[in-house]
Amino acid sequence: MIKLGDTRTYVKHVTAADFARFEDGLVHAVCSTFSLAQAAEWAGRLFVLEMKAEDEEGIGISLTINHKSPAFEGEDVELVATLKKQEGNKVICSFTAKVGERLVAEGETGQKILKKEKLAKILAPKKV
Fold it and tell me: Which residue range or ranges hold the Fluoroacetyl-CoA-specific thioesterase-like domain (predicted)?
């Protein structure tokens, strides 16, 4: 039984694919905020995977991330998601991302569990 305060952990190994890049090229040779955000969503999704039924799927609804320090290529970032709130089909987690004792990022993710059929209708392209 999952309860408030429970945690799930995901370890993200930083590679060059995680570096901050835009159309104009490499910005920084460290883990990007975008890559950390994706890893944070995965850490929160670990709860969704346990909660959802076979005919359901999760979808992201919110994300806040405060990037505090760099994570370098070759480092392992440990993301710990803590179940903060569950209201109906909404799952809200706070998270920390650390390399050893160094805080890399913290924030919150929100996901919603929906029936796959309903989600398919929501995500279907609209005809104009």
Answer: 14-117
Which residues, in sequence order, are bridge partners of residue 85?
92
Both tokens of 72, joined, read 């370098």
Count CA within 13 A, CB hemisphere, residue 52: 20
Residue 47 forms part of a structural domain: yes
Query: Is 1 among the domain residues?
Result: no
Rounded to two decimals, the pTM is 0.91
- For residues 17 and 53, is the Cβ–Cβ distance under 8 A? no
Average pLDDT over the chain, rounded to whole?
A: 95
Work out the end-to-end distance of the chain between its first and last CA atoms, rounded to an integer number of angstroms.
Answer: 45
- DSSP annotation of 24 reads T
How many domains, in total, are found in the chain?
Answer: 1
Give domain status of residue 67, yes or no: yes
Which residue segment(s) compose the domain that 99 sits in? 7-123
